[in-house]
């Protein structure tokens, strides 16, 4: 008895008269295998599509979602490299500027401070001490220092200046020696006017002070003639008061 193939068996079972296949059943087997594979793939795709509508389990993300399958990326979006988030700017607080400490200036010495520095107790009565806002003056009559109409110190003048030396040497301040005359004109070969006489008398005192230890850079000699009177030149007493030498100690 001739064997029956699967195709003929299937045809007999379905009531279809069997057809003789001269080429055999090889192509039919391939065809059935392919159909079976397509059926399996179709069922798998349907199963996956059905899971996309189901609620995903917690902690397990869905493989495909409707939003993911229908979303359209912008052109070239897949080529963009994700950029790292920009770091927040670091605000650097400026360092506080150093506060300059201004030390207060020492107070300027007053005339009273200058007087307190001077040993005035041994000056005697021939030297008059005069103070103002900026200096201390030692006023000496020209009648004590010089002969009349002359600029050379006499013995009495040398003795008075000798008493003044410790006072002037106790401080480092500038010392101006100013010569003054009255309004009586003097006309001689040595002193054509009171300007020369007053300047020469101031210069004689400066030379004496320098010779006795007072630093020369502290000294200055000025002749004022009769331009700075202290009293009325119309009286003998007033003219005698105006003839003087003043040693001005600047603080």
UniProtKB/TrEMBL annotation:
Span of domain OmpA-like: 133-251
Matching InterPro entries: Bact_OuterMem_StrucFunc, MotB-like_N_dom, OmpA-like, OmpA-like_sf
Taxonomy, superkingdom: Bacteria
Bilayer topology term: Single-pass membrane protein
PANTHER family: LIPOPROTEIN YIAD-RELATED, STATOR ELEMENT OF FLAGELLAR MOTOR COMPLEX
Subcellular location field: Cell membrane
Alphabetized Pfam families for the sequence: MotB_plug (PF13677), OmpA (PF00691)
Organism of provenance: Pseudomonas nabeulensis
Cellular component aspect of the GO annotation: plasma membrane
Family: Belongs to the MotB family.
Protein name, entry field: Protein MotD
Keywords: Cell membrane, Membrane, Transmembrane, Transmembrane helix
Presence of keyword Transmembrane: yes
TM helices/strands, residue ranges: 28-49
CDD domains tied to this protein: OmpA_C-like
């Amino acid at each position: 008895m001739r064997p029956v193939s699967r195709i003929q068996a299937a045809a007999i079972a379905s009531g279809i008269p069997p057809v003789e296949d001269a080429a055999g059943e090889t192509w039919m087997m391939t065809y059935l295998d392919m159909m079976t594979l397509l059926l399996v793939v179709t069922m798998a795709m349907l199963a996956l599509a059905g899971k996309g509508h189901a609620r995903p389990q917690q902690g397990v993300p869905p493989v495909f979602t409707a939003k993911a399958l229908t979303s359209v990326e912008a052109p070239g979006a897949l080529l963009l490299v994700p950029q790292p988030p920009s770091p927040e700017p670091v605000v650097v607080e400026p360092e506080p500027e150093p506060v300059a400490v201004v030390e207060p200036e020492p107070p300027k010495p007053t005339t009273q401070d200058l007087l307190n520095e001077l040993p005035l107790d041994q000056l005697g009565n021939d030297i008059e001490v005069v103070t103002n806002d900026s200096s201390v003056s030692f006023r000496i009559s020209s009648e004590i220092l010089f002969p009349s109409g002359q600029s050379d110190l006499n013995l009495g003048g040398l003795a008075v200046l000798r008493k003044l030396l410790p006072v002037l040497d106790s401080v480092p301040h500038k010392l101006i020696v100013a010569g003054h005359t009255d309004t009586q004109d003097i006309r001689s070969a040595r002193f054509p006017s009171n300007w020369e006489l007053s300047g020469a008398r101031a210069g004689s005192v400066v030379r004496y002070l320098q010779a006795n230890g007072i630093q020369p850079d502290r000294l200055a000699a000025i002749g004022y003639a009769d331009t700075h009177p202290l009293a009325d030149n119309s009286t003998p007493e007033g003219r005698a008061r105006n003839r003087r030498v003043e040693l001005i100690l600047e603080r």
